[in-house]
Amino acid sequence: MDKALYVAMTGARASLQAQATVSHNLANSDTPGFKEALANTEAFPIQGQGYASRIDALHVDAGFNRRIGAQQITGNALDLSLQPGSWLAVQSRDGSEAYTRAGALTLTPNGQLVTADGNAVLDENGNPVAVPPHQAIEIGHDGTLSVIPLGEGPQTMAMVGRLRVVQAPDARLQRGLDGLMRNTDPQQPFAQVQGKALDSGMLESSNVDAAGALVQMIQLQRQFEMQVKVIKHGDENARSANTLLRLNG
Known about the structure:
Layout: H1 2-27, E1 37-45, E2 55-64, E3 71-73, E4 80-82, E5 86-91, E6 97-100, E7 106-107, E8 113-114, E9 120-121, E10 134-139, E11 144-149, E12 158-162, E13 165-167, E14 173-175, E15 181-183, E16 191-192, E17 198-200, E18 202-204, H2 210-248
Antiparallel strand pairs: 1-2, 3-18, 4-17, 5-6, 5-9, 5-13, 7-8, 10-11, 11-12, 13-16, 14-15
């Protein structure tokens, strides 16, 4: 009887973990460039002496949904929508290089280009991008950053840097706890995108289907309730069996 209890318990645990993933997706359904996190379960045979008849349910991080989100025109020169397979390089909190498709960029008071979460955007040499005082700014399709200096005319527009936009295979990307993607093989750095890498004045929306996520949340809740009922009935059966054994004894 304990086999049913353990299987139901691990199934309930996996359902709770999957609910946490879906909740995270729903919370980011309006976050530009967010990629839906995927969750799955797999059978996990319990090893040990005797016949391996006990198989538990194990929650598995299945990566992220690669689908491109809808495009939203904003007209803001610092809003970027990256091409499929392209990722913007940023500096994470620990100083390492990480990647994102969240292209809603801003400038700090000292002219540093950062993401909405405050991560510094990197240039093609891997250094944080600093923008000099200007009256107009433009980001080209290849990631080049140009400005018109204060008090100057349009003819003085000059390139001051180029954003580091890399071509990263999805199989070599892994999401960290901070929501940023990282290279699973740092010994093989990603290459700079050649040619068109992005569009300025646009944002890629989150690819989370909010309605579908809500339906999934309801299904997971029902699964959890069913697994809890199995645990409850298994415990009641065990108590009844113990009572019968005591009476027969």
